[in-house]
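Closing statement on the nicotinamide-adenine-dinucleotide sub-project.
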Amino acid sequence: MSNGLNGLHGLPELNILNPATEEVVATVPTTSAAEVDAAVRRAAAAQESWAAVAPGDRARILRRFADVVDAHITPLAELELREAGHPLGNAEWEAGNVRDLLHYAAGGVERLTGTQIPVSGGLNITIQEPLGVVAVIAPWNFPMPIAAWGTAPALAAGNAVLLKPAETTPLTALRLAELALEAGLPEGLFQVLPGEGPVTGSALVDHPGVAKVVFTGSTATGRQIAARCAAQTKRLTLELGGKSPNIVFADADIEAAAAAAPGSFLDNTGQDCCARSRILVQRSVYDRFMELLEPAVKAFTVGDPRDPATQMGPLISAAQRERVRSYVPEDAPAAIRGEAPAGKGFWYPATVLEGRPEDRTATEEIFGPVAVVLPFDDEADAIRIANTTDYGLSGSLWTRDVGRAIRVSRAVAAGNLSVNSHSSVRYWTPFGGFKQSGLGRELGPDALSAFTETKNIFISTELSTEESK
Ligand code: NAD
């Protein structure tokens, strides 16, 4: 990924490749530990003034940022297409999501109220104070939305943000920082620090001037970061991996379940922490479901991300393709295999495997367009299999029985469940994982609170000794 060296500090530069063509689209300098230190100092100074800006004015500036992003949806999407290979329509949605997150967070600034709690002898109030400087460490799978999940509410709550994008996808983040300045955000308040995880990311995690880390990525890296944050009692939100079930009961609308299944594990080429990559199907409808699934998977259009008809682009990198191949060698028997372009680009075909719940393909996050189908006998069996994973991010279930929908939703150990649909992420509803899928929640009505400390203040109303005389 890196072949040049930065003139200033001898660190490697990032060569950003278009995953659909393997062409170098940009070369980006990385950020050294000393530069991270300087960025933290600038951010701390900017944060002090930002927290003192009247709430209405802070909200107005964030709305202006949202409006500037809105005016740049197409160029941002084109940049995302070039660095991440996302189909243009998806990338436009992602840029629009940044705009929406900023508007939603801006609406929270004046609503960041504390409480008044009844006590005797005085008045007790709580206030929500900003944390200070927040580090957002983002992954490459949804570079813009996930960066904004942390950034928008953190800024709205009065914090400064240092965003470290993933090595492969820094371009949209860098552009967003320019747009923030154009919108009137103070210098230093929102800085983007491209670089390698173990250098730039590590320096941010370990810096004592960083009050909170918001990390999205692999469970292994998340665990390491958690241990390092623990050493400084640093606040932390983790959004980690998933191996989410899609449970199809015999009483469901099987046609609808089969039609929706491909998108649930092929969208973003399966590089989605919420991908429904384990399809659990009740044994009595298994054959019928597979009959319907095959044409639906094969109809999922794979190809040039610039073509409006394209539903699935390439994987992010050669390394990611190798990782996916390590789970499914080319000659592995697959129940369904789609097509993928030949030649340049990190292409991988849609693949559906049959297997057992304990198989590696059914327990580990593959992060590619691969699902495994597992038969089950009854509701208890479905719940048992669904929970046979260390992860607990999302899940879907298809049934016409309302009681079953509620029972199973409550029994599956995951943070985001969806009945007769695969929706899991809306910026105004909470999102996060159980078990090894994470720690804390993002988005939703409490998003800003995750970037504040609660301060409790008691004010005595007792007469002073002098006045009581
Ligand atoms: P990763 O977790 O290593 O990287 C995610 C982010 O963390 C990147 O910005 C990276 O630079 C940074 N990082 C890496 N090491 C760091 C460190 N020591 N300190 C601070 N920051 C650090 O993920 P990856 O290697 O890009 O992908 C590997 C696998 O992770 C994927 O195949 C997939 O299974 C999983 N993944 C999951 C998600 C998700 O949304 N849950 C996102 C990306 C990757």
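Residues 137-141, 164, 166-167, 197-198, 201-202, 205, 216-218, 221, 224-225, 240-241, 273, 323, 365, 367 surround nicotinamide-adenine-dinucleotide (CB under 6 Å). With this model delivered, the sub-project is considered complete and its resources will be redirected to Aim 3.
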